[in-house]
C-alpha cells in the first residue's frame, strides 16, 4: 500500500539548507529524496537503538568502536 503524499513546508537555518543542497547534489537526487532518505535512516537508527542494539564503526586499521547517538532510541521524555 503506497503512502499518500503530503506537502510539507519547513524553515531551516541556512547552514542546514546548504548541507541538504550539498547532499542532494552529490547524490544526484532531489532535496525531497535527500530528506526522505535522511528520515528513513534516522528511523532505522532510532528503532535499532530502541531494540537494545548498537552500532560499531570499523576504522581504516580494522579497529572497531561503538557509535553513540545522543538521545536516539529513547522514548519521548515528558
Topology:
Layout: H1 14-27, H2 31-50, E1 55-58, E2 64-67
Antiparallel strand pairs: 1-2
Proportion of beta-strand residues: 5-15%
Structure classification: mainly alpha
* Counted beta strands: 2
Largest sheet, strands/sense/barrel: 2 strands, antiparallel
What topology, given as strand order, has the largest sheet? Answer: 1-2
Q: What series of H and E elements makes up the topology? A: HHEE
Distance from N terminus to C terminus (CA atoms, Å) equals 34 Å
**What is the radius of gyration computed over CA atoms, rounded to a whole number of angstroms?**
16 Å
Describe this structure in words.
- The chain starts with 13 loop residues before the first helix and ends in an 11-residue tail after the last strand.
- It has helices at 14-27, 31-50; strands at 55-58, 64-67.
- Helix content is 44%, strand content 10%.
- Helix 1 packs across helix 2.
- The protein is extended and about 40 Å long.
- The protein is mainly alpha-helical and 78 residues long.
Compact description:
The chain is mainly alpha-helical and 78 residues long. The protein is built from two helices and two strands, in the order H-H-E-E.
Task: Identify the notable features of this structure and list them briefly.
78 residues; mainly alpha; two-stranded antiparallel ribbon; extended
Amino acid at each position: 500500500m503506497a503512502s499518500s503524499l503530503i506537502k510539507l513546508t519547513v524553515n531551516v537555518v541556512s547552514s542546514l539548507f546548504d548541507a541538504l543542497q550539498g547532499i542532494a547534489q552529490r547524490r544526484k537526487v532531489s532535496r525531497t529524496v535527500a530528506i526522505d532518505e535522511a528520515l528513513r535512516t534516522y528511523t532505522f537508527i532510532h528503532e535499532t537503538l530502541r531494540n537494545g542494539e548498537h552500532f560499531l564503526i570499523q576504522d581504516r586499521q580494522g579497529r572497531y568502536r561503538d557509535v553513540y547517538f545522543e538521545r536516539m532510541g529513547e522514548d519521548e521524555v515528558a
